[in-house]
Amino acid sequence: MEGNNPQTTRVPAAKSDRWWERAVIYQIYPRSFQDSNADGVGDLEGIRRRLDYIASLGVDAIWLSPIYPSPMADFGYDVADHCDVDPMFGSLASFDKLLDDVHAHGLKLLLDFVPNHTSDQHPWFHESRSSRSNPKRDWYIWRDPAPDGGPPNNWTSDMGGSAWEWDAATGQYYLHAFLREQPDLNWRNPDVRQAMLDVLHFWLDRGVDGFRIDVLWHCYKAAELPDNPPNPDYRPELGEKHKVLQHYSADQPEIHELAAAFRTMADSYGERLLVGEVCLPLPRLMAYYGSEAAPGVHLPFNFALLDCPWNPRALAEIITTYEAALPPAGWPNWVIGSHDAPRIAARIGEAQARVAMMLLLTLRGTPTLYQGDELGIGKVPIPAHRVRDPQDLRQPGLGLGRDRSRTPMPWNSAPFAGFSSTEPWLPLNPDWGSRNVSAQAADPGSMLALTRKLLHFRRLSDALTRGAFSLLHADEAVLAYERTFADERLVVVLNLSALPRPHPVRGVALVSTRGLPADPVTLRPHEGVILLPED
Ligand code: GLC
Question: Which residues form the Glycosyl hydrolase family 13 catalytic domain (predicted)?
């Protein structure tokens, strides 16, 4: 990569100026943000009380993980009513109040839309499983047993085990790509489609600014439900979902027409944003942008940074192949953390998490920042008796647990870190006494201070929010790239190593992950800088 001709990797500046192209999205996991009613679980009123904090970060939009009524088998991703709020989180009235306040803070609000499945406690599923002749039977995917009485095919659930659950009362199996408590909807049934489009209408009419669409690529399965091919690379430690390749159980061609229908609906409300959760290799991911004639979601999530090797050459490869794969009108996006992925600081260490934050906030495209990453929350041990994540409970010992990324926000050094007045549903990060919002707000050298600085710097920079991108340099320790818009030219230089390194570019440092002043000749260990380059 060293000595790369910048012309070959140059990506031009954005032509249009839609709000979400310049925006930074902040993901809130509502159970763990702020409790306001002393039950140890976060809620909407808690979020509302923290809006000043969110706005002060310098982000533009909030995405809320699911807030709908749910038995919480998968912590809200098992929806029992798409058009209401779980009492644990509040009510429709508290939602409306939150939405008004979000807008009053100049922020946007995205909800999580979960179209692939519902809870098994959803009234639709109650009806569907009540008898084979129920009008809603076909709203879910029911099949007779295989000739040996076993499941209809070899599909595995993403949470482990077969994707089929036997229903003795009606003598058929139903399909669930995730937990058995999350039966898959049958999107080939037009009534399902209409009912779910009505759900989008319901929230758009209430004024939400868009949706993050859960497991979008799962919604359609091949009509005949053939066996999936076995995965030749399967190893048990990967988890049972990898036993077979999801060739027929996901990413079917019909999904793009559905994504286009979601998009048409969103566009009919003005500039509303659709972010699609799509975990697929690049060429298949790119198809979710749709075409000019039939646009898909605005932002198919780009998870490439979540599990990549943390070295400059690998990052350069990821960034340039992603940029090169984007369709002409496709706007990029980047993610370094979520409620499903290990914490970035746990994965690469706190010093590099600061570098990762600079990377996230200076690449071309819309970043999504996950709550708590602005504090550099790292490893959080979850004692066995406190494990709550169903994925971990079903496949213990594989390190698949997601609780470690879902621990409560530490706000201050009051009991329970100011998150709640009672024991929270998950443990706090062990260093919450010092790693909390109020301690870091008072420390100019903190991760929070750095995140704020980067977010505010980014806001004021056309080069960072919509400028062109060129890769300048990647060796075994240092990655450098340039962002330009009109006369504005900035260079980002990231030292991914624990040693001092010579600067590949001359210039004046405007921001450093290790604080200013920065040495113009030598990068400090783990230092990232944004430079005004010398010409
Ligand atoms: C998505 C969510 C994850 C959930 C799954 C099933 O991947 O992010 O948390 O378990 O969908 O809904």
Answer: 27-406
